[in-house]
């Protein structure tokens, strides 16, 4: 696992740190190294959980669409329902966002 040049994970919270190990294993199973492309750095939408250390973006440019769908599904299962896992064109966004029952 590595950080894209310029990415900061300063201030990320334990709940999002917990996603890094299962994500790294999933990427490895699919023949790739996990690259974090955004942490607490960068510009995100207003109210983004990146700013409070509860979201990460992971590189996916080396995956075809079918593999990206599969990786997204595997990550959703691995991290559970307290996390939103969102597939974008250029990355997978993961945030800790527990829902009330």
Attribute tags:
31% helix, 2 helices, 5 strands, alpha+beta, 5-stranded mixed beta sheet, 101 residues
Overview of the structural elements:
Helix 1 crosses helix 2 (65-79). The chain has helices at residues 14-29, 65-79; strands at residues 2-3, 35-38, 55-59, 83-87, 91-96. The chain is globular and about 30 Å long. It starts with a strand and ends in a 5-residue tail after the last strand. It has a five-stranded mixed β-sheet. The protein has 101 residues and is of the alpha+beta class. Strand 4 and strand 5 (91-96) form a beta hairpin.
What is the SS-derived class?
alpha+beta
Task: Kindly state the number of beta strands.
Answer: 5
Q: What share of the residues lie within helices?
A: 25-40%
What is the element string, with H for helices and E for strands?
Answer: EHEEHEE
Distance between the termini: 34 Å
| Fraction in beta strands | 15-25%
**Biggest sheet: strands side by side, in what order?**
1-2-3-5-4
For the largest beta-sheet, the strand count, sense and barrel status come to: 5 strands, mixed
What is the residue-averaged pLDDT?
93
**Overall spatial form:** globular
Low-confidence stretches: none
Rg (C-alpha, Å): 13 Å
When the domains are counted, the total is 1
